[in-house]
Protein 1
Amino acid sequence: MKALKVLSTAALIGVSALALASCNNKNTEKTIIFHHAAGQTLQKEIDNAIARFKEKFPGWDVEQASQGGYDELKSATVSNLQAGTQPDIAYCYADHVATYITAGKVLDMSKFINSTDTVEASSGSLNVGYSSAEVADFVPGYYNEGLATNYADYDKYGFTATSMLTMPFSKSTELMYVNLDAMKAAGVSEIPTTWDELFAAAEKIKEKYPVSTPIAYDSEANWAIAMAKQNGWNYTSPTSPYYTFRNETRLANWMDSLAPYYERGIITTKTTYGGYTSDLFTQGVEAGGCVFCIGSSGGASYQATDNFNWGVAAIPGSVVDGKVNKSVISQGPSLVMFDTGNSEKSTMAWMFMKELLDPSFQSSFSQSSGYNPVRLSTYDNESYKAFLDDTTNIKAVAAKVASTMSNDFFTSPAFNGSSDARIQIGSALVSVIKGEKDGASALEAAYKACGGK
């Protein structure tokens, strides 16, 4: 086993770098840059991970910086890559990384995962790599999202089938938040498990509460993508022509079917409503709110209310060949590493990433965020077990429901332009729901907006 020495003696650096380090009162060669989209509460959790890392590796520092939302983070990262000022680590989604790899700066983390090297820490030597047992401790579906085989033309950029482009960090999915009191008062005894059941329940609720909007779905893009996955409709492909939704008449017909429901006040979405539909959920049906609100498990705290008894369930599934397909999108950030030209620094950035992926940190972060941890052993953590057992905490209930759905999670193919497909399919659905276009015209317009000819 080769030992990589990480000591306090600074490497020789240029005059300009010394000046910058002096100006900022920090050694930029030993400062790991971490860009993310975390809010202030979660930044405090990250601060705790930074403190533990610095205790292990005196002389090293981590600078974390929020770039705003995920779209802003992607734009900033693309600009950084173009300027050669990329961070060492960043939050990411797969379709972001599909763009980043074209710059040739995404690191293959399999070399760290499989490493037999050690680094010197204050407590002694620490392994750089993960053991096979540690790899197996990651939730398989989350871990496998990072494989290069999930990316179109990965071999063109020097990766192999076993290359690891991202590591899972914190995951969420979509759930259905339910006003149990209003549902039962309308004569619906059980939470719907299929879309047909959901719309049948919505009719009863609308009759009981005429001012209500029974069904609210935050993400139009997620709705369209999930329906395509559940029903086997074309959406995108990892190989050319990529944007396979263009002539998907079944998807177009489904979009068309939603317009009458919107016109009658049965459904709404974030865009058509003008804000997150959790506001509709918490206000209650008597005030015009919704009964079934589909949104992120990571946003469960925004669904919290004492105005009525609530429940949390998986989103409905589609009946295909007599079976219910409950496929649901996997969300939440992964972590990507960038080559900044300093191999020692890259190794230490990886060691900081391991701090973020440690089960004890995953427990604390997941309790604060409501997102699901990515390490299986986190569920054995006493603090996290106590959190999940709190049936009065909607974040805990949502996390517990989401943890049972991992076999149904999916991600869409990632390629340079897949993020455009997501944006445009969501816009297409909005235009059809509002009656501005029919489904076929909306999909054609989305195809052209993605660069299709």
Protein 2
Amino acid sequence: MPDINVKGRLMDLSVPRVMGILNLTPDSFYADSRKEAETDIALRTRQILDEGGDIIDVGAYSSRPGADHISTDEEMSRLRRGLSIIRREAPEAVISVDTFRADVARMCVEEYGAAIINDIAGGELDPQMFPTIAALHVPYILMHGGKEMIKATPQAPVEDLMEELTLFFSQRINRLHHLGVCDIIVDPGFGFAKTLQQNYQLMAHMEELHELGKPLLVGISRKSMIYRLLGTTPAEALNGTTVLNTLALQKGAAILRVHDVKACTELVTIYNEYKKH
């Protein structure tokens, strides 16, 4: 599994890493993940790290269906406030910023030392994103499906989902390589522009994406592919999340993006011990 260069240090991805979610939004789909008050942001920062999280993924734009569109200025304002608090609480933390806007990415890296950019739109909503990542020299999380979700026009089912994803990622990885970007993480985009059945098809065949030669990030925490299948709610989806994260590790996921860091780090510890035997 390729390592990634995070601010001059190699992050070993031969052991699965846990990315904890910190939402600076009032409308993310899982209510308990919303942190707007200064005290809540500080507590969540410490919680992610104390429970064993390797990366803090900070987002200020909700990508859930029907969420309010916010301006670049509003996204930057939320992030400036949140990142200031996070940096005060945990100066050495590895911070990923969840944004599809190049100007926002640049601000977070240059002003607050963000180490990774997590783009749900895969560069499709801002033509300056790829050149900006190349100039910033930070790892880039390339996700499938976010463009359709943001625009509220989910793509039609494709005959061969894995072929579609492989083509999507191959084309964009080639463009990024041409710009000199090597530290690329692939996120297949569970829950984005995919039917419930396609999400499970993707999980069943995810190992096919290893042919891309890039680490895989899986973000299925409390998503609708769990609670709609079970007829429950996001608040009741932790058990299903753990099941799917276990399957994701068996399929070779390098990073798990989660709300519940303690449950995930326990899973990784158990999985690592299992793999020794």
Protein 3
Amino acid sequence: MTRQTSLATLGVLASLALLAPHAQAADTTPEPPPPPRYSAPAAAPLATAQGHIKAARWGAAIDELKRLNLERDADWNNLMGFSLRKQATPDLEGAQRHYDAALRLNPNHLGALEYVGELALMKKDLPAAEAYLARLQRACGIANPCEPLETLKKAVAAYKAAPK
């Protein structure tokens, strides 16, 4: 092969390489649209339990949470602790176990920090409540407002103001 033939072959190959992307893009057939979704998306697993909690149906919330059995979920443990603490005959030790589990799974879980602080006040343990309040302050950081923090601050202040 002569030098001139080699250069011509190289030129043809370069031209083909430049045209190749355009050849691939020439197919302008549109993708078919996805089929319509007629079913509603599945609800979050804790939604039913949260509904029971909003309605103060503690027993139903506990039953639903037990049915779900999501022990490795911080939110699940937080809701279980809350429901156990709020029921007619509070299970303070059970609530403590679940708040502790929630905080092991997520040390900055705002709800669990608020509720375990309230639990400490129920147990008449102001130093523990204040320690949870400090942790909650750090967890909230600069978030303003931080509703769990404000709620626990009010609960600690009310506890301190109450006659002993």
